[in-house]
Structures are given as structure tokens and as C-alpha cells.
Design brief:
InterPro entries: HAD-like_hydrolase_sf, HAD-like_sf, HAD-SF_hydro_IA, HAD_2, HAD_sf, PGP-like_dom2. By secondary structure, the protein is of the alpha/beta class. Helix content is about 45%, strand content about 10%. It contains nine helices and eight strands. Helix 1 crosses helix 3.
Length: about 220
């Protein structure tokens, strides 16, 4: 079965504000103000919790990996508590996924968000049922850009890797596609904007309304 696998953060949904709020909660917890800005630091948010903590500590001029590791579980707990306060699916995302499914494509998710948090978020957003698989950063011992999580997401969705495509928003997604030997389409409405063109994906997605046609052109 032809299969379309989606990244989550920055591709299906703008999760940056809730991610940054969780990181800021950590810094407030030990006596500092908000160290990250929800707009200016949106791209860092999509590189994960540890990346946000490293950025905040760098602005304080203190902290190393031990401090990042110590705060990371606190960040995850804060994030889960407010996981859907500001997060919204990008316009047209639901309609695009529904159109693909109606056309006979399997759909799934491969994200570097911890699996349980991804499950919680997609369930709270009311769209978990639209995806036949959900593979997170900790489902396997490796994560994207290693191709293993991508391959598993295709298989659990009922598809075959050679008839699949990855929809993402970062160079990590581009490198995952290369490693798996599949085409990649990157959205231009994420925090990196048109800058994703520099990663040389097989296609750019300016509007989710264009996705079904792009997918047909790349995997039939």
C-alpha cells in the first residue's frame, strides 16, 4: 500500500509555544525569568527539549549537559501538563490527511517527540485515529535521521517503504528520507519557512491543499 508518513512538530502542528513554555517553566523553577521567546526561538523548539534547555543555559552563561539532563524530566512533565494549550494543527492538515486516506493511501507519524507525549497530543487534538502508526523518539533505541523509525512507521501503517514518502519540515526529515531511500516533501509554513528549500527535498509544500497532488506525483 502507498504510504504517507508525517513528522509532527512543525509539520502537522505548530507546537512551539507550548514547548517553549515548558522550557521556561524550568528556568523559572530555579529563580530565573523566561529565557526563551515563543516567536524568536520557535525553530529551536522543534529541535527538542534539550536544545531549548541548552539555549536557555547559554543565555545565562552557565549550565552544562548535567544540568540539561537534570532539567529534562522536569521539562517533559511541564510540557505534558500544558501540551495543547497553544498547539494548533496547521490549516488544511486534517483535510489533506483525510483526502489521502480517501484516495487509498495509508498514513502514519514518525516524530522525534517521545512516543507517549505524541500519543497524548494527537489524542487531545482529536486526530489520532487518522494515522495508522505513530513512532516516537523512544519507540526504538534510535531516532530520526536513522531510517529505522521511519521504516517501522510505514510497516505499522500497513505499507511498504519503497512505496512511501515522508512529509517533514527540517533537515533531519530530509536526511531520514535519504537514509531510507524515499522522497521527502518539506512544508514551507513551519518555523524555517522557505529556508527548507536549501535542504533540496523532492518537493516543497506551501499549502496543505497541494499535498495530495504532490504525493501522487512522487509515489503515484
Amino acid at each position: 500500500m502507498r504510504t504517507v508518513i508525517f513528522d509532527l512538530d512543525g509539520t502537522l502542528a505548530d507546537t512551539s509555544a507550548d514547548l517553549i513554555a515548558a522550557a521556561n517553566a524550568c528556568f523559572r523553577g530555579f529563580g530565573h525569568g523566561d529565557m526563551l521567546d515563543p516567536v524568536a526561538d520557535a525553530l529551536t523548539a522543534f529541535h527538542g527539549g534539550r536544545a531549548m534547555l541548552r539555549l536557555g543555559f547559554s543565555r545565562l552563561g552557565q549550565g552544562g549537559e548535567a544540568e540539561v539532563d537534570a532539567q529534562y524530566p522536569i521539562l517533559l512533565a511541564a510540557y505534558e501538563e500544558g501540551i495543547d494549550r497553544e498547539t494548533r494543527l496547521y490549516p488544511g492538515a486534517i483535510e489533506a490527511v483525510e483526502a489521502l486516506r480517501a484516495a487509498g493511501y495509508a498514513t502514519g507519524i514518525c516524530t522525534n517527540k517521545p512516543e507517549r507525549l505524541a500519543e497524548v497530543l494527537m489524542t487531545r487534538l482529536g486526530v489520532r485515529g487518522l494515522f495508522g502508526s505513530l513512532i516516537g523518539a523512544d519507540t526504538l533505541p534510535v531516532r530520526k535521521p536513522d531510517p529505522a523509525p521511519y521504516r517501522l512507521s510505514v510497516e505499522r501503517a500497513g505499507g511498504r517503504v519503497e512505496n512511501s514518502i515522508l512529509i517533514g519540515d527540517t533537515d533531519t526529515d530530509r536526511q531520514t528520507g535519504r537514509a531510507a531511500g524515499v522522497p521527502v516533501a518539506l512544508v514551507t509554513f513551519g518555523p524555517a519557512g522557505q529556508g527548507v528549500a536549501g535542504f533540496a527535498p523532492e518537493a516543497l509544500i506551501d499549502d496543505f491543499a497541494d499535498l495530495p497532488e504532490i504525493v501522487r506525483g512522487l509515489i503515484g
